[in-house]
Design a protein that fits this description.
4 helices; disordered N terminus; globular
Length: 206
């Protein structure tokens, strides 16, 4: 199993293991999972160079209105991978990206907010729900693109269950890391057994 598939399996396992954080996350046919594969009505679609930003929406924490996380899908259409290295908003406010940057694989996509351990957060957000926030995305290769991104509360039915609180995000990431480690160990064991069986069969044929 590839690292990417193990990561996806780990995220799915974490969603099952953390029902208190999941909300309508549960199940691959769940509402939020389906939305993650398409441009949500409220989401902004932007592009620069070989990178596309789809369904971008700031989801605000109803318990802490100045805290929000970005729901979006980043797609790289070029022959080389790219990295999202900075996100800025207006009026200016502190922002943070999981790990400092998000890797976007060649001919692949990366999600934030839904079914993902990747998060883009803004703190001290100065905006009301259902208004738009000018947001600038800076990529290592593709450059910079700015667009208006809508702000919605996490009590909105479409975004209910999005993990907005940084504390809850950290809990989810820990579960993902543990689940990924377990998936890697299972894969390694399976591969070892397969190799042993193959060698035994080859020896028997000699």
């Amino acid at each position: 199993m590839s690292k990417t598939r193990r990561r996806a399996a780990a995220v799915a396992a974490a969603a099952i293991l953390v029902p208190t954080l999941a909300g309508c996350w549960q199940g691959f046919d769940a509402q939020t999972s389906v939305q993650a594969n398409q441009a949500v009505g409220n989401g902004s679609n932007l592009s620069t160079g070989d990178v596309e930003v789809r369904g971008a929406t700031w989801v605000r924490n109803s318990l802490n209105p100045k805290e929000a996380t970005l729901v979006a899908t980043f797609i790289a259409n070029g022959d080389v991978p790219d990295r999202l290295v900075k996100v800025e908003v207006q009026p200016p406010a502190a922002t943070g990206i999981t790990g400092g940057a998000i890797e976007i694989p060649t001919a692949g996509s990366v999600r934030t907010g839904y079914w993902s351990p990747n998060f883009i957060n803004v703190f001290d957000l100065q905006a009301f729900p259902s208004t738009f926030v000018p947001t600038t995305f800076t990529f290592e290769r593709a450059g910079t693109v700015t667009g208006d991104v809508m702000v919605v509360p996490n009590t909105n039915r479409q975004y209910e269950g999005v993990v907005v609180s940084v504390r809850d995000q950290l809990k989810l990431q820990k579960f993902v890391d543990k689940a990924e480690e377990a998936a890697t160990e299972d894969t390694t064991t399976t591969e070892k057994v397969a190799k042993a069986k193959k060698k035994k069969a080859e020896d028997a044929g000699e």
